[in-house]
Amino acid sequence: MAPLDLWLRCETKEFEHRSMLTPTTAKKLIDSGKFTVTVERDPQRIFKDSEFEEVGCKLVEHNSWPSAPLSSLICGLKELPPNDTTALPHAHIMFAHCYKQQGGWIDVITRWEAGQPTGMLYDLEFLQEENGRRVAAFGYHAGFAGAAVGTLALAKQVGSNGEKERLGETKPYPNEAALIADVKGQLAAVEAKLGRKPRALVIGALGRCGRGAVDFFKEAGFEDDNIAKWDMAETSKGGPFQEILDADVFVNCIYLTSKIPSFIAPESIEAAGDKRNLRVVVDVSCDTTNPNNPIPIYSVNTTFDKPTVDVEGLTVGPPMTVVSIDHLPTLLPREASDAFSNDLLPSLMTLPEAVAEREPRQGKPITAQDVDKAKPERVWKEAEALFWDKLADAQRETKGKSA
């Protein structure tokens, strides 16, 4: 079997500094003899181009993947540039954000339909172990970074006259220690202004993301008794929840799969009046365009150059802001990339077998029942089956709208 070429594309999302492959994992792939690795030059990637070149990767021009050989498998993290409807004839590994009916999802997934018979999406969000746990995820660092940005936003707001100032452009930190040191340096002023220790509430605290958020608050100096750690047991009664309004920072870390009662709502916020402590909401889950979003108090994603958006319509109590950045782990890009890529590596080692098995039947759908769960490349075959399932959903919805 000829080596499979993994083509690491540049990330075009603004402020994105992470990488699906690192120089360390790229070297391990090359050393296995099963892969070649092609890397696009990328000035915003946390790893230098030379770091990849030194381990045997081939460097190519920035954003040149559309002209890559169809045998190359295009690898990346975040979504492709918007407002592009050209066909995608390559197989891609990425977070496509089109399987949970996000805004514009049909336009995204049908680009691979137009790229048949060779187009394929292996969505990183849905590569799963047999127990349903993701083989690799940025969840821990998303929660950790989300809690950090939320605390920085709280400090900026509380420390300003009339709480009118907002957190400005927030750049990546070289490491976790530098981030913790910066936040700790600002918490004393927050305590002095509030006249007490700050409080945090994390929903989804038992998952990867929630554990990251809780760990940050602990490392930053929040007292353990002031960190409410909620999960399914605490939310089973259904919201809205007064306890959220009693915290200064609320971090939402749930993985949304269906409609649930709102955690907070404009009515409950208004009813709390000037007794409300809550000033910053961090929606790490970022289901902004999902109709089932349990935090219906904002409607736009925020970015690292403008991390917060104000909750509109409040007439009493302090101002409230929302952090809804959908790539929070890039606040710690090197550590987040290292952890994710190392977790993904064992599955990547089985990818050539899945690609070789798919080649004779390219363009022909398979179902989950067609997957041999005993084979090591199972994770990729299940991702392939899921792609065809979601594409069929898009076709049915499109047909229904035109009927």
Mind telling me the CATH class of the largest domain? Answer: Alpha Beta
What profile does the largest beta sheet have?
Answer: 6 strands, parallel
Average pLDDT for all residues = 94
Number of helices: 12
CATH fold-level label of the largest domain: Rossmann fold
Span of the ends, CA to CA: 47 Å
The parts where pLDDT drops under 50 for at least 5 residues are: none
CATH superfamily of the largest domain: NAD(P)-binding Rossmann-like Domain
The geometry reads as: globular
**Percent of residues in helices:** 25-40%
Helix-strand makeup class: alpha/beta
Instruction: Name the beta content range.
Output: 5-15%
Order of helices and strands: EHEHEEEHEHHEHEHHEHEEEHHH
Strand element count? 12
* Overall tally of domains: 2
Strand order of the largest sheet: 3-2-1-4-5-6
Overall description:
Keywords: Amino-acid biosynthesis, Disulfide bond, Lysine biosynthesis, NAD, Oxidoreductase. Residues 179-324 form the Alanine dehydrogenase/pyridine nucleotide transhydrogenase NAD(H)-binding domain. This is Saccharopine dehydrogenase [NAD(+), L-lysine-forming]. GO terms for molecular function: saccharopine dehydrogenase (NAD+, L-lysine-forming) activity. This protein is of the alpha/beta class and 403 residues long. The protein is built from twelve helices and twelve strands. The chain has two domains: 4-136 and 333-402, NAD(P)-binding Rossmann-like Domain (Rossmann fold, 3-Layer(aba) Sandwich); 139-331, NAD(P)-binding Rossmann-like Domain (Rossmann fold). The protein has helices spanning 23-31, 49-53, 105-114, 139-158, 176-194, 208-220, 232-235, 242-246, 266-272, 333-348, 351-358, 378-402; strands at residues 4-8, 35-40, 58-60, 73-75, 91-94, 120-123, 200-203, 227-230, 249-252, 280-283, 308-310, 321-323. The radius of gyration is 22 Å and the shape is globular. It starts with a strand and ends with a helix.
